[in-house]
Amino acid sequence: MLKLEMPTIRTARLILRPITEADAPDMYAYASDPENLYFVWFPQHTSVEDSAHVIREFFLNRPQRGLPEPYAIVEAQSGRMIGTIDIHTVRFGDVGELGYILNKAYWNRGYTTEALQALIGVAFHYCGFWRVEIQHHADNHSSEAVIRKAGFIKEGVFRQRKFDEALNKRGDYCFYGINLTDEVVNTRYTQEHYEKTLSH
């Protein structure tokens, strides 16, 4: 049985905590920006109320749908919510697919890598997943770098999987996974690694 109510996590520079409706203004700051949405699958938000609606209807009800609570990514120094990271899909009872988005004002600082590595530990040692998966558009080389740095193993490419309106063409998506028995878990994502991130 998966644990779905997520603990608050602290890394060197970030706090990962369950998202709340109060995060709507900060979500709108990036979800209304076409550049921020270039490679993501959801439509542009046109108001703070749009963002509040998304939080209410697609994020806050995740546990009722058998999914872990999504995390708000908070910059610890400023206290600002700068993105989300979550396990948005569960397959076969113990396989979770991860996703993230970060406000472009905070790109190229290593924040996404920091958040992703923390979530991997939570997924294995708190939620109870046996395997985690992630994908990115083949042209999204920044996400590729983040995913590879986290130790994910590339397992294939979905050819022309989805029509991307921003690119006006069908895009290839690269697919990755980590299993609980993989060496990277034994060396980088141990129980001890996870426990050090717990907020006290």
What does this structure look like?
By secondary structure, the protein is α+β, with helices and mostly antiparallel strands. It has a single domain (9-197), classed as Gcn5-related N-acetyltransferase (GNAT) (Aminopeptidase). The protein is 30% helix and 30% strand. The chain has six helices and eight strands, in the order ββααβββαβαββαα. The protein has helices at residues 24-31, 48-59, 111-127, 141-149, 183-188, 191-197; strands spanning 9-10, 14-18, 71-75, 81-91, 95-102, 131-137, 153-164, 169-179. It has an eight-stranded mixed sheet, sandwiched between helices. Helix 3 (111-127) links the parallel strand 5 and strand 6 (131-137).
Detail the topology: elements first, then pairings.
Blueprint: E1 9-10, E2 14-18, H1 24-31, H2 48-59, E3 71-75, E4 81-91, E5 95-102, H3 111-127, E6 131-137, H4 141-149, E7 153-164, E8 169-179, H5 183-188, H6 191-197
Parallel strand pairs: 5-6
Antiparallel strand pairs: 1-2, 2-3, 3-4, 4-5, 6-8, 7-8
